[in-house]
Amino acid sequence: MTDKSTNIKERVLEVAKYHGVSYVPFCKEIGLTYGNFTGKSKLTPINSNALKDILLNYPDVNPRWLILGEGNMLIDENEFPSGELKSEGKHTLKGGLSKEEENYKELYETTKIKLDAQKEVVESLKELIVSLKSKN
Prior knowledge:
This protein is mainly alpha-helical and 136 residues long. The protein is built from five helices and two strands. The protein folds into two domains: 1-96, Orthogonal Bundle (434 Repressor (Amino-terminal Domain)); 98-136. The protein has helices spanning 8-18, 23-29, 48-57, 63-68, 99-135; strands at residues 85-88, 91-94. The chain is elongated and about 65 Å long.
């Protein structure tokens, strides 16, 4: 089913509703606030990290539907060999990792990205200090 009548943020909220998660905690889970999905904010773009978090936390969601509004909301489990998609609680997990393992993996990746960004800031500040010292 193609649903181009909705915008991407409306589809994001449909994911929360389908999975039985209230909007506020769902938005927090993907690094946003519910305010990003109301009023004029509803018409602004969504960041790629939020989309990544949705697809990591809800791998049964069809990425093409989420991003483009094409196809069905859920991935057809018949398209996957046995065991490639597994259901655990309200989330469908991919690859057989437990929810806790997925959380640790995501925490590691996020921490690494933040650490790399902080290293870049430190290097920039060092360069600025050298530049300011040379002007004196």
